[in-house]
Amino acid sequence: MTDVRIGPAGGLGGAAFDNYTLPEGARLKEIHVMSDMYVHALQLVYISASGERGHLGPIGSVNGNHSVFTLDDDEMLTGLSGLCDWYVDQIRFHTNKRVSESYGGDGTSNTFSFEVPAGYGVVGLFGQADWYLDAIGIIGQPLPKPKAKKKAPAARANAAAVEAPKREPRPKDLEKVEGIGPKIAQLLIDAGIYDLVDLSVAEVARLKEILAAAGKRYALADPSTWPDQAALGAKGDWAAMEAMQKTLTAGRKG
Description:
- With 254 residues, the chain is of the alpha+beta class.
- It has helices at 154-163, 171-174, 182-190, 196-200, 204-213, 216-219, 226-234, 238-253; strands at residues 4-10, 15-21, 27-35, 39-47, 53-55, 59-60, 65-70, 77-84, 88-95, 103-104, 111-115, 120-129, 133-142.
- The protein is built from eight helices and 13 strands.
- The longest helix has 16 residues, at 238-253.
């Protein structure tokens, strides 16, 4: 399968990342964006060929405001556009159906716009990143030709379901976040939030919904700082995570 690479646009700083691509047969479902005056990080969430939700690790630093661009089941990413200079200041996502809102700031007039050729879809990204997203380019692949659907025997379909790889939940990691005990960790896992990376990009509103659905006892929990705590733990910055927790505890006592 012949890939096309378009870009990158942006600066020369940061560490290079390459082949940040979806698994074969996966469909892009969400793009998580961390931004303020600049774009800090992007993270791709996908639906695998076997129908399971998965994600790639974030590129850049998990800082700034968290936004999610969600694609419809029949929607695919076809390009990017935005503003850039030393960093990627602003970004928009182009699909076969629409163009997203702008994420980031407007501190430069240098524009960029990338689109894959007709018959291609964006399956990955490449560029440079560190504290910010320094530079970004797109990786495209030809879209698969539609195949005639064949009804698989029940035994084969069941075997495929059993053999499909599953992600490993990490409840003990989730419990390192102040406010999360074993029971709440299990609630999060049941809702598809398996580890600290998942929790770091989860919206607080969604966390509140999960807790409220579990009953009044859990609805009393305050998840407003959980993504920020998880972001530090996901980067292995346990000292900063502990310092944040001490500050939270002191604030409640005060």
